[in-house]
UniProtKB/TrEMBL annotation, chain A:
Its main location: membrane. It is a multi-pass membrane protein. Keywords: Membrane, Transmembrane, Transmembrane helix, Transport. The chain crosses the membrane at residues 21-39, 45-64, 71-91, 136-157, 166-190, 218-243, 264-282, 326-345. InterPro entries: MetI-like, MetI-like_sf, Sugar_ABC_transporter. PANTHER family: GLUCOSE IMPORT SYSTEM PERMEASE PROTEIN GLCT (PTHR43759:SF1), TREHALOSE TRANSPORT SYSTEM PERMEASE PROTEIN SUGA (PTHR43759). Residues 132-342 form the ABC transmembrane type-1 domain. This is Sugar ABC transporter permease. The keyword Iron-sulfur does not apply. It is found in: Cell membrane.
UniProtKB/TrEMBL annotation, chain B:
PANTHER family: ABC TRANSPORTER PERIPLASMIC-BINDING PROTEIN YCJN-RELATED, ARABINOSE-BINDING PROTEIN-RELATED. It is found in: Periplasm. The lineage of its organism: Bacteria, Pseudomonadati, Pseudomonadota, Alphaproteobacteria, Rhodospirillales. Belongs to the bacterial solute-binding protein 1 family. InterPro entries: Bact_solute-bd_prot1 (IPR050490), SBP (IPR006059). This is Extracellular solute-binding protein. It comes from the Bacteria. It comes from Dongia sedimenti.
Length: 353, 477
C-alpha cells in the first residue's frame, strides 16, 4: 500500500490528468447542473450520462495507476450493477414524484402526491390495501405450507431407502418446471368439467364440486400449487443441513439412550436452524411478490388479487407509471422492514442460543 | 502515456462504431424498403404474410420487404405497449385492438391517415368500401369522428356455433316441442331467428347429468346447452354484456356524446340493470367453470370442441379449430347462425353486438418512402382479389363487394352469418382511459358472474368509477 502510494503522488485538484478523479467530479457536477438547466432534457440526459462515465473512467485510471487491482477487478461488476439495477431504481424513485404516464408525452412535478394517492385516495387506496392484506394472507399460508412440507420431505429423504435417488429427482421436478407450465397444469387439475379433482369429488358426493368458485377454494388452490412448486426448494436447503450433522453426535446420543424428540431438538435442530431461517427469508420475499400463479389461476378473481398483480395492472397495462413507481416503493419499503426485522430476530435468537 | 493513448484509441473506435451504426439505419437505399410489422401470432396474420411473400409485386418497382414480428396473443398488448412507450420506434405497422386507438394516438404513436386518403382518391375509394361499422370501429378516434387511423386486418363478430346432431335429434326435438311449445332450432335459419329467451330455454333443456338420456342414450359425461364468455380476463365478459345492454335499449358511456354524455344514470340505468340480470340468469345453465370467472372465449370454445355444450356464442376468430379433426370432436356436426337477438317494439329482432377483430395502423415515425409503399400495400391488401383469397383461407373481409359476392358464404360455415351481423356492430370506448375503464368493469362483472354481488350494485359501482375517472379526464362535464 505505502509502496504504491509513494510510486505516484495523488494529483492536486486542478492538475489536468486522466487519473484526477476529484477534478472529474467537480467538472461533472458543474457540467451536469448547467446542462440540466440550459439544455433540453433529451440532450442533457446523455450529457449527464457521459459525465458519470467520465468520473467512472477517472476512477478506473486512478485505480490502474496506483495499482488498486482489487478495485479494478470488481469494477465491471459494479458497472453492470449500476447500469442494470441501481440507475433504474433511482430513476423510478425520481418518477414517483412526478405525474407521468409512459404513453403520454407530458410530465409534471407533483411531490408526494402519488404516495398520498396510493395510500389515501378514496378510490385507489382501498384496492391497494385490500390487495396488500390478500398478499399477507398468501405469505402466511404459502410460506407455512412450504416450510412444513419441505421440512417433512427433508426428514424423509435424509434417511437411506431403496429408490431414494430417483424419488428425490421426481420430488425436485416441480421446482424446475416453468411457472406457466405448472399454472396451466393446475387450471386443468381444478377445472370442474375436465379436471380430475372435481371428477373424483363428484363421484364421491354426487354433487357439483367447483373448487375455484369461492375465496377459500381459490386461495387453497393457489396455495397448493405454490407449495407444490416451492416445497422442494425448502427441502433442498433443510436436507443440506441434515446431511451436515456429524454422525458421532447421534451415536453418542444412542449410547445415552436419548429420546427421539430430545435428539431432534438438541442435535438436529441447531444444525438446520440457520438454513431453515434462510429458506423462510427467501420464500417470504418471493411470496410477497406472488403474481404469476394468481394471473394464471384466477386473474385475481374470487378476491385473490395480490399487490404484485395489482401493480402490474397499474404500471404496465394502464401505463400509470409514476403511480406504479410510488406503490412499488411503498412495497419495497415494507419488504426491507420485514426482512430486517426478521434478520434482527434471527440474530438475537442465535446469540441467545 | 501509453494508457492514455489506449483509452483515446478505444474511445475513437467506439465513436466510429456508433456513427457506423447510425449511418447504417439512415442511408437505407431508395430501392429497398422494409416495412416492420407487429402482429399477433395466429392464422389471419400468418396468411397475410404468406400472401405478401408469394404474391405482392410493388408498382413502384422497389424491393419491398415485410418484416413481421409474430407475437403470441397473451403477450401481445404488453409487447406492443412496451415497444411504443419505450420509444424504440421499431414498427411501421401495428395490429391493434380498436380500443387501444385513443391511448396510442394521444401518446403520439399512431399516424393519422386523412392526408394519405385525400392525396390518393384510389386509396380513399378502397378505404371507403369497407362497411361503415367496422370502419368506424377500426379507424376512428374519437369513435365515429372523421379522424382516420387504421385499416381492417381481421374483422370479427360474435356468432352462434351450434351442434346439429344434438339440436336436430328427433327425440330432443319432440321433447323440446312438448316442454316449450316451440320448435327446437336446428338449421342455420332457425338459429338465426333465436332470441335470448330461446337461448336460455336451450340451456335449461339440455342440462343433463352424466348417465341421463341425451339423444336417446345415456350421456357419458355432464352435458350443457349453452355457453358464452363470462371470464374476468381482458374483455372476456364486457364484449358479451355490452350486446345485452344495447339490445334491450340501454347504453354504455357513449364517447360520441363528449362532453355531455354521462356515466351515472346511463351505465346503471334500470334497463341496463335488467340487461345484466338477463345475462347473469344464463350463467346457471352453463358449464360450471363459468362460476369461477375463468370462462373466457378460449374456454367456452374448448368446451364446445370437446362436445360438452350444444351452443356457444364466440368470435369467428376462434372458429377455425372447430373444423380441424385433430382439435375438434364436432367437425361434421357444426352449424353456425347469427348470435341471438332481442325482439324490438315492432317484433323484429334487435341484434346490437360488440364488434371484435383488429385493424392495423401506421406509426408516426414511418418515413415518406415507407409510407408510399405502405399505402400501396394496404391498397393491395384491401383489393377484391386478395380479400377473397384471404376469406377463402379462413379470414374475414369487411369490404362490401367481397362479402356480397355469392361465393363468400361457401368459404366457411360461419360466413353465412357475416353480412347480416355487420349491420349490427358497435364498439366501446376508444379513449385513452380505455384500460382503466375495462379492468374496473371486468372486475365488477366478475363479482356478479361469480355470484358475489347483484346486477344493480355492479352497475352502480361501474357508473360511479367511470363518472369520477372521466370527469377528472375532462371527458364528462
Amino acid at each position: 500500500m505505502s509502496l504504491t502510494q509513494s510510486a505516484r503522488p495523488t494529483p492536486t485538484l486542478f492538475n489536468v490528468s486522466a487519473d484526477n478523479w476529484r477534478l472529474a467530479i467537480v467538472v461533472a457536477l458543474v457540467v451536469s447542473i448547467i446542462a440540466g438547466i440550459v439544455l433540453p432534457a433529451a440532450v442533457s440526459f446523455w450529457l449527464i450520462g457521459a459525465m458519470v462515465a467520465l468520473v467512472a473512467a477517472s476512477f478506473v485510471v486512478n485505480a490502474y495507476r496506483r495499482r488498486y487491482y482489487g478495485g479494478l477487478l470488481v469494477a465491471p461488476a459494479i458497472a453492470v450493477l449500476f447500469v442494470m439495477n441501481i440507475f433504474p431504481l433511482l430513476w423510478s424513485l425520481g418518477l414517483s414524484f412526478f405525474a407521468y404516464q409512459s404513453n403520454q408525452q407530458s410530465i409534471r412535478f407533483v411531490g408526494l402526491n402519488n404516495y398520498i394517492k396510493v395510500l389515501t385516495n378514496e378510490i385507489a387506496a382501498p384496492d391497494n390495501w385490500h390487495a396488500l392484506s390478500n398478499t399477507a394472507l398468501f405469505v402466511v399460508l404459502t410460506v407455512s405450507a412450504q416450510m412444513i412440507v419441505g421440512f417433512l420431505l427433508a426428514m424423509l429423504f435424509a434417511k437411506q431407502f431403496p429408490l431414494r435417488k430417483y424419488l428425490l429427482i421426481l420430488v425436485l421436478t416441480p421446482m424446475m418446471l416453468s411457472v406457466v407450465a405448472s399454472g396451466v397444469f393446475f387450471t386443468y387439475y381444478y377445472d370442474p368439467t375436465f379436471g380430475i379433482l372435481s371428477y373424483v369429488v363428484n363421484d364421491a358426493t354426487d354433487g357439483q364440486f367447483i373448487l375455484m368458485s369461492s375465496k377459500a377454494g381459490a386461495v387453497a388452490g393457489i396455495v397448493f400449487a405454490d407449495a407444490w412448486m416451492w416445497s422442494p426448494f425448502v427441502m433442498l436447503l433443510v436436507l443440506a443441513g441434515l446431511v451436515s450433522v456429524p454422525k458421532y453426535l447421534y451415536e453418542a446420543a444412542a449410547i445415552d439412550r436419548v429420546s427421539a424428540w430430545r435428539r431432534f431438538w438438541s442435535i438436529t435442530f441447531p444444525y438446520i436452524r440457520g438454513l431453515l431461517m434462510l429458506a423462510l427469508l427467501f420464500r417470504t420475499i418471493e411470496a410477497f411478490k406472488l403474481a404469476d400463479l394468481v394471473i394464471l389461476l384466477t386473474k385475481g378473481g374470487n378476491d385473490t388479487m395480490t399487490i404484485s398483480y395489482h401493480l402490474i395492472r397499474i404500471a404496465n397495462e394502464q401505463n400509470k407509471t409514476s403511480e406504479g413507481a410510488a406503490l412499488s416503493y411503498v412495497m419495497l419499503f415494507m419488504v426491507i422492514v420485514l426482512t430486517n426485522l426478521y434478520l434482527y430476530l434471527a440474530n438475537r435468537r442465535n446469540k441467545g442460543g | 502515456m501509453s494508457t492514455r493513448t489506449k483509452i483515446k484509441g478505444a474511445l475513437m473506435a467506439a465513436g466510429v462504431a456508433a456513427s457506423l451504426g447510425v449511418a447504417d439505419v439512415s442511408t437505407a437505399r431508395a430501392e429497398e424498403v422494409t416495412l416492420t410489422m407487429a402482429v399477433p401470432d395466429w392464422p389471419p396474420t400468418r396468411v397475410m404474410k404468406k400472401f405478401f411473400d408469394e404474391q405482392y409485386k410493388p408498382k413502384s418497382g422497389n424491393t419491398v420487404k415485410l418484416d413481421v414480428d409474430f407475437i403470441p396473443w397473451p403477450d401481445f398488448y404488453t409487447r406492443v405497449n412496451a415497444s411504443l412507450t419505450s420509444g424504440e420506434k421499431k414498427y411501421n405497422f401495428i395490429v391493434s385492438d380498436s380500443q387501444w386507438l385513443g391511448a396510442f394516438v394521444e401518446g403520439g404513436y399512431y399516424r393519422k391517415i386523412n392526408d394519405l386518403l385525400d392525396a390518393d382518391p384510389d386509396f380513399k375509394k378502397t378505404f371507403m368500401s369497407v362497411h361503415e361499422n367496422p370502419r368506424n370501429a377500426y379507424s376512428t378516434y374519437p369513435y365515429k369522428s372523421e379522424n382516420y387511423y387504421g385499416f381492417p386486418q381481421f374483422p370479427d363478430v360474435l356468432v352462434n356455433f351450434a351442434r346439429k346432431d344434438v339440436l336436430c335429434d328427433a327425440t330432443e326435438q319432440k321433447n323440446f316441442q312438448a316442454k316449450y311449445n316451440k320448435k327446437l332450432p336446428c338449421t342455420g335459419e332457425e338459429i338465426d331467428a333465436m332470441t335470448w329467451d330461446d337461448f336460455k330455454n336451450i340451456g335449461e333443456f339440455f342440462r343433463r347429468k352424466k348417465g341421463e338420456m341425451l339423444m336417446g342414450k345415456p350421456a357419458d359425461d355432464d352435458f350443457y346447452g349453452i355457453a358464452f364468455q363470462a371470464g374476468k380476463g381482458y374483455d372476456f365478459s364486457s364484449m358479451q354484456i355490452n350486446g345485452f345492454i344495447w339490445q334491450m335499449g340501454g347504453d354504455v358511456w357513449d364517447e360520441t356524446k363528449v362532453p355531455n354524455g354521462q356515466a351515472e344514470g346511463v351505465v346503471n340505468s334500470p334497463v341496463a340493470v335488467k340487461a345484466l340480470e338477463k345475462y347473469l340468469s344464463m350463467i346457471d345453465y352453463m358449464p360450471p367453470v363459468a362460476k369461477t370467472g375463468t370462462m373466457d372465449i378460449f374456454k367456452s370454445d374448448e368446451l364446445f370442441r370437446e362436445g360438452k355444450v350444444a351452443m356457444n356464442i364466440d368470435w369467428i376468430g376462434v372458429g377455425e379449430a372447430s373444423l380441424d379433426p385433430k382439435t375438434s370432436k364436432v367437425v361434421d356436426k357444426l352449424v353456425v347462425g347469427l348470435a341471438p337477438g332481442t325482439p324490438g317494439p315492432d317484433g323484429k329482432l334487435v341484434r346490437w353486438s360488440n364488434i371484435g377483430g383488429q385493424p392495423f395502423v401506421l406509426t408516426t415515425w414511418t418515413t415518406d418512402a415507407q409510407i408510399k409503399e405502405a399505402v400501396e400495400f394496404v391498397k393491395w391488401w384491401l383489393s377484391d382479389d386478395i380479400q377473397n383469397q384471404f376469406a377463402a383461407a379462413g379470414g374475414q373481409s369487411a369490404v362490401k363487394s367481397v362479402y356480397e359476392n355469392p361465393k363468400y358464404v361457401t368459404y366457411r360455415p360461419w360466413n353465412r352469418a357475416w353480412a347480416a351481423s355487420l349491420d349490427w356492430q358497435k364498439d366501446v370506448w376508444h379513449v385513452p382511459q380505455f384500460f382503466e375503464l375495462l379492468t374496473q368493469q371486468q372486475d365488477q362483472f366478475d363479482l356478479a358472474i361469480t355470484g358475489k354481488q347483484d346486477a344493480k350494485t355492479t352497475l352502480d359501482n361501474i357508473a360511479k368509477f367511470q363518472q369520477n375517472l372521466l370527469t377528472e379526464a375532462g371527458l364528462i362535464q
